[in-house]
Amino acid sequence: MTTAATTTRPVSLASRRQVLQGIGAAGLASVAGCLAPSTTASGPGPAASVEADPVPALDPAGALGADRIAADPTAIPAPIDRDHAETVSVELVTEEVVAEIEPGVTFTYMTFNGQIPGPLVRVREGDTVELTIHNHEDSTMAHNVDFHATRGPGGGGEATLVVPGETARLRFKATYPGAFIYHCAVPNVDYHIAAGMYGVILVEPEEGLPEVDHELYFGQHELYTVGDTGEEGHHDFSFDRMADEDPTYVALNGSKAAITPDGHGSPTVAVGDTVRVIFGCGGPNLPSYLHPIGSVWDEAWATGSLASDPELFVETSTVAPGSAFVGTMSFPVPGDVKLVDHALSRVA
Amino acid sequence: MIHVEGDENPEIFDPDPEFDDDASESGIVDSGFDTGPESAAGNESATLED
């Protein structure tokens, strides 16, 4: 997590030609007129320059479009309690939101439903998913969604490409169980994921999941920005740093220390409780070496493959970018259990 | 972070233990190296005298 000594930091709004080249022929008709980035990029944040001059200081922090970007780890659908397939409706809204990575440090996130990770989608094996995706009118870019839980062109990416203000629909059947990532998959897909556009779809096996006392939902991804870690101001996106895989932040649920007492608070459980954690690694580039400090995973499905037997008593699971993890924990003693990426130098 | 509330369970985890000097076996093998405060003090003293 080093930072560049000198930064070229104007925001360049790409020409229409660049946009169309970036989107590719398949999406030309749909995205004409949308804005896309070149080297650095900003959405609805502070005013942008079109001149490429070295600028050592950041713009002031942007006006916040949301008080928090971090998904509430407890705000997820309840376990499925039925023995038959149904049709499940899922509504996603793609929104570009200025929010704080940490106090005084703003970034123009791209999100599903204004949260990172995007909402946990929960269905049962055999269910039919009827997806509606709407790109918010204030968006500056085209978006879509690629579900790893389905077989079909682009995981639905082609069918769900939407320009600002547009709505698209997709129906697919969840034919295999597991936890799977979904993410925006327009060209510059790594940029859109690094800006926050990923989430998890949990396809429960037909027989359901073992009962637990609590379920929690987390996600990790990297933020590549202009400016130093912790430097106050508005951080534009840095394509150079992303190419170098040199993130400014590696964040759990989108922002620094989000699910801690210093952030938005921590979930509380009781001694003797059991917890199932559903975790998505959005990447776009770095795996998560997911470790619960002060515990182990009693069961770990490191790749989210719920059709497979879990590993037992696992200290650290490698969760690849573009992959999801499911693990359970028990708590015989009180205290705090901290979920970390055990590549500890990444902690920002 | 997950905060766990409830009664302590020293059989599982005891942050303030009293050791039993009569423990039946050691979980490690004595390396035979000179370690600890007494050894360190001796080395320091020798260096100063030299």
Characterise the protein shown here:
The complex is a heterodimer of chains A (348) and B (50). Chain A is mainly beta and 348 residues long. Among the domains of chain A are: 118 residues, Immunoglobulin-like, CATH 2.60.40; 103 residues, Cupredoxins -  blue copper proteins (Immunoglobulin-like). Chain A has four helices and 21 strands. In chain A, the strands form five sheets. Chain A has a six-stranded mixed β-sheet. Chain A has a five-stranded mixed β-sheet with strand order 7-5-2-3-11, with no helix packed on it. At the A-B interface, strand 14 and strand 21 of A face strand 1 of B.
Low-pLDDT regions of chain A: 1-39, 43-49
- CATH fold annotation of the domain at 87-204 in chain A: Immunoglobulin-like
What is the averaged pLDDT score of chain B? 70
| Rg of chain A, nearest Å | 20 Å
> Which value, in Å, is the CA radius of gyration of chain B?
20 Å
Q: What is the assembly state of the chains in this entry?
A: heterodimer
Whole-number mean pLDDT of chain A: 87
Question: What structural class is derived from the secondary structure elements of chain B?
Answer: alpha+beta
Give the CATH H-level superfamily of the domain at 87-204 in chain A: Cupredoxins -  blue copper proteins
Sequence-ordered SSE layout with sheet pairings:
The complex is a heterodimer of chains A (348) and B (50).
Chain A: H1 16-23, H2 28-31, E1 40-41, E2 87-102, E3 105-112, E4 118-124, E5 128-135, E6 146-147, E7 167-173, E8 178-183, H3 189-194, E9 198-204, E10 214-223, E11 233-235, E12 237-238, H4 239-243, E13 249-252, E14 268-270, E15 274-283, E16 288-293, E17 297-301, E18 311-314, E19 317-319, E20 323-330, E21 335-341
Parallel strand pairs in A: 2-5, 3-11, 4-9, 10-15
Antiparallel strand pairs in A: 1-12, 2-3, 5-7, 6-8, 8-9, 10-13, 15-20, 16-19, 16-21, 17-18, 17-20
Chain B: E1 2-5, H1 37-49
